[in-house]
């Protein structure tokens, strides 16, 4: 308990002593002076806050409570300067009005004066707004569907055939293809076994033919002529090995991904859910989600409500709904933010993309409470400062990262071994072609009694020229003569 001295001016006040007790538990002792001023000494008690156990909003940690709502309450207390004491709602309900007009749950405790605030994932609805005061929403949510991954299939995309490999792997394969073709072209020019007489013979391994040859090997098809030199065969064998391993990984990953998505049922939203009778579905009994379907004029939503009423497929808690969805053949309909948390904690579950009935979670105060506006302003300030987004990231952190990585596309680093083998094979092939050319140059230099370096330089100059117009012209002139 702490003291707070307030001085206010009211011209119509008479001298006297007044004791005021507000509906927020604030006791004020006021002395009214003749001058019209009023000195009030306010003894402010702890606010009684009711909440409900729900992960991650409010959870037990030993003798204390923690969670998103507890962190939010702490931030609001710092901004508005009040003390509080939290207790869990006695009947374990959020708040529903019965036929006689009485409220249960947290809403009922606030209405009866047993609590000053209700801080929990309470949906802002018209019926609740009539009975209690509700602040600006601190979180936006909607209604969606929670299902197990292996009982639904998603619509196939046009480029799903690329999914076995990641973008980095496909880029690496493309680079390897062009580098290999260039190496085949170089070896075809340097090796004397492939091109013995560059002055008179045409070169079969042009860049265009090398690209075609590498593409044929990649598709397990031959495209002649084939290399005759040892250097060319080393590169060719290495590229064939690379192609076989690459295709084996591709078809293995493609078949496994198609096998996991082979379920015939496809549920993308509530229309699909209402038009099938294979999967059972339900929602939380007495929740605002159930009231949404009950009061809706949409034919599909009405069919969903009538099905749930007829089958009595309701659950008593969020945990029960998640557990039934995990067991299979059951779709749980609930708040999208709660379903996102279930997906983050249970890697075998997935939430449908469609979200309907957008609404917000609010803090509940007694009707006409003077703290309602201050709480709303504080919530907007926290939102603008990014505090609410930080709390959402903190308590909705996913634990499915290791599991999701198992079924992800093959990345370049997972195939680095075969890329390394290809690089070594290309290097050995180019070195062997240089060795073959050097051996021929040394032999020619011995016959012509010239320097080996001069002969090697001349050979490289002739073989690395893109065209042989001069040699072709001389050959033509000799034939004419």
The helical percent reads: 40-55%
CATH class of the largest domain: Alpha Beta
How far apart are the termini?
A: 120 Å
CATH homologous superfamily descriptor of the largest domain? Periplasmic binding protein-like II
CATH topology of the largest domain: D-Maltodextrin-Binding Protein, domain 2
How many separate helices?
17
Mean residue pLDDT: 80
Q: In terms of per-residue confidence, which ranges show pLDDT below 50 for 5 or more consecutive residues?
A: 1-44, 260-264, 402-407, 468-481
What's the CATH architecture name of the largest domain?
3-Layer(aba) Sandwich
Number of structurally distinct domains? 4
Instruction: Tell me the overall shape.
Output: elongated
C-alpha-based Rg, rounded? 39 Å
Strand content: 15-25%
Subcellular location: Postsynaptic cell membrane
InterPro entries: Glu/Gly-bd (IPR019594), Iono_Glu_rcpt_met (IPR001508), Ionotropic_Glu_rcpt (IPR015683), Iontro_rcpt_C (IPR001320)
Main location: membrane
GO molecular function, one term: signaling receptor activity
Characterize the structure shown.
The chain is α+β, with helices and mostly antiparallel strands and about 475 residues long. The protein folds into four domains: about 45-140 and about 360-400, D-Maltodextrin-Binding Protein, domain 2 (3-Layer(aba) Sandwich), CATH 3.40.190; about 140-155 and about 265-360, Periplasmic binding protein-like II (D-Maltodextrin-Binding Protein, domain 2), CATH 3.40.190; about 160-195 and about 200-260, Helix Hairpins, CATH 1.10.287; about 415-465. Helix content is about 45%, strand content about 20%. The protein is built from 17 helices and 15 strands. It has helices at about 70-80, 105-110, 125-130, 165-190, 205-220, 230-260, 270-275, 290-295, 300-310, 320-325, 335-345, 370-385, 385-395, 400-405, 415-450, 450-465, 470-480, and strands spanning about 1-10, 15-20, 25-30, 35-45, 45-50, 60, 65, 85-90, 115-125, 135, 140-150, 280-285, 330-335, 350, 355-365. The strands form three sheets. Strands 5, 8, 9, 10, 11, 12, 13, 14 and 15 form a nine-stranded mixed beta sheet that branches. It has a four-stranded antiparallel beta sheet with strand order 1-4-3-2, with no helix packed on it. Helix 1 packs across helix 12 (about 370-385), helix 6 runs antiparallel to helix 15 and helix 8 crosses helix 9. The longest helix is centred in the C-terminal third of the chain and has 33 residues, at about 415-450. The radius of gyration is 39 Å and the shape is elongated. Residues about 1-45, about 260-265, about 400-405 and about 470-480 have low confidence and may be disordered. It is a multi-pass membrane protein. It is found in: Postsynaptic cell membrane. Belongs to the glutamate-gated ion channel (TC 1.A.10.1) family.
